[in-house]
Queue: 2 jobs
Job 1
Amino acid sequence: MADKFFIRTFGCQMNEHDSEKVKGVLLDMGLEEAESEKEADLILLNTCAVREKPVHKVYSELGRFKRMGDKVIGVLGCVAQKEGKRIIERMPHVDFVIGPRNIYRIKEAFERAREGKKSVFTDQSSRCAVTDLSFPIARENPYRAYITIMEGCDNFCSYCIVPFVRGREVSRPPEDILEEVKILSDAGYKEITLLGQNVNSYGKGLDKKVDFADLLHMVHEVEGIEWIRFITSHPKDFSDRLIEAVMTLPKICEYIHLPAQSGSNRILELMNRKYTKERYLEIVEKIRSYGKYVAFTSDLIVGFPTETEEDFQETLDLIKKVEYEGIFAFVYNPREFTRAYNWEDDVPMEEKKRRLSELLKVQDEITQKLSKSYEGKVVDVLFDREESGWLVGRTRTFKIVKTRADKSRLGHIVKVKITEAKMYELKGEIVEGDV
Ligand code: SF4
């Protein structure tokens, strides 16, 4: 009987997509996917190190696996890169540790584990797995796909561990990306999301002079792909040329995740973000000046070292001005290796939590109001899954929409009249056939 594997993924879309790549290799090796950890011979945790809590969770999960008998245990992702061999020292029942740049070595690590050998693959200079088109990828969804266009980050925001665990920026050549987009189009995919830690600085270090706006134009030419998204954008690299491409190419969806992190210029400088609140709002204004509704989302941190009530009020002001459809907000916690790690974490936790709950309260009202504004409108929806008798999809603005319809609509872009709007989910009725 074939060995079975089970992967648990934490963190961002980059991790989700890395898990699809690892899964592709394991299936290619003849392994089968298990329904649960219990029935798996190989358990993998694909981890996130951006915040402290998930790192502790990885260790507690690994402790739990110890009691599950004779299984191969592997740790992937950013915690693997950050902790390296410390994981095996603390948890000797772990068989291998693989950082994000080394996931293509999963086969080797599993085979070594079967021979009773431990492996730690965390060489940051390793070739980036994504540059290899023969790398099998087992995508979770048959209609919408992630495509990595660059890896790593050179920005060194003072609170962020990513440059230390995902390495320096490496862009994938445009020809490779285009070839992958064409393969996906031929396979029937309708939507692609171009992935990278900072997609706006795409092209750095490539022989050919090409930037993200050029790449969007090239990808836009591929027939069959109807919707294009990208994540994550850095405001400092959102040039006018890029705004023009995003706002004028019809396949690009009206959804931009544009992390602001703070609304206070003093804090933004301490964070090494390299833009001001005014510049951020100017980008939003320029995008809106094209006259189309665009949904913005953001990442925000409260309680950064030295953040005062006044600084926090600036952040509240920013979210009110932008009117995000949603935010991912967190209290600051120091991360090893980063510049801010050595600074006094001087905002008391109680105060951080108070600011976070105030921020979320204000944001909830905005999200509620914007959700309500969908009621009665007809929107395009790409239905991509079925869930308890509902067809579920997303609008171009990335809102979840549910409807009662038959499965033949799956994988199609359909016009839906929104009849009911909850905070994070819309319900509606199909009003006509495919677009
Ligand atoms: S841009 Fe800043 S926050 Fe984003 S991954 Fe790079 S260092 Fe981290």
Note: The domain at 4-121 is CATH 3.40.50.12160 (Rossmann fold).
Job 2
Amino acid sequence: MIKIRKHLQKDIPYRVKWLNNPEVNKFIGDEMGQKTNLKKEKEWFSNYLKAKNKKFFTICDSSKPIGFMGLSHISKSNKNADLFIAIGEDDYRGKGIGKIAIKWLINYGFKKLKLHKINLGVIEDNNHAIKVYRELGFIIEGKMKDEVFYKGKYRDFLSMAIFNSKK
Ligand SMILES: CC(C)(COP(=O)(O)OP(=O)(O)OC[C@H]1O[C@@H](n2cnc3c(N)ncnc32)[C@H](O)[C@@H]1OP(=O)(O)O)[C@@H](O)C(=O)NCCC(=O)NCCS
């Protein structure tokens, strides 16, 4: 049973585990494949608690944390935000959980925060994520050529967005 709750201090060790998982960090971060540690994630969390423009959630299988997601750069004036998601536990990817979680987050952004648009960035190689985003209604708005250098190759980065059609 999938449950979504607030992202909490007790999730910090999971953040380290998930963000260091090669199956996750090959697709995320400012620099693909970068490693994190407890100190950096404690710092991230204390900044997160102070930030007014970020809302993060932990995705759980009953009570077991399996991943996290959130909206950042939430702009009240532009009514937009950036979406992020990572299913950190290997056994839980490809089972429909990401789709359920993203749907929940889109609904949260549009209904609760009353956003007009939700943006995300995804590396062109991340076919799985792109498929999920498309199925949920995200469109490709642009492509940044050679934006990421990873494992000896420049890769394109896609900007995707979904719009709140009910105003
Ligand atoms: C991207 C991610 C959030 C998707 O969540 P998920 O739970 O794995 O995705 P789902 O199981 O909901 O997949 C939904 C669809 O993708 C398909 N799919 C599953 N595994 C796949 C794979 N390896 N390659 C391509 N498509 C795949 C499923 O068949 C499903 O399609 P359907 O709804 O038509 O049946 C998750 O895989 C993840 O965290 N990946 C690592 C981090 C990452 O890439 N984050 C996004 C950065 S932009």
Note: Residues 9 and 45 are 7 Å apart (CA to CA).
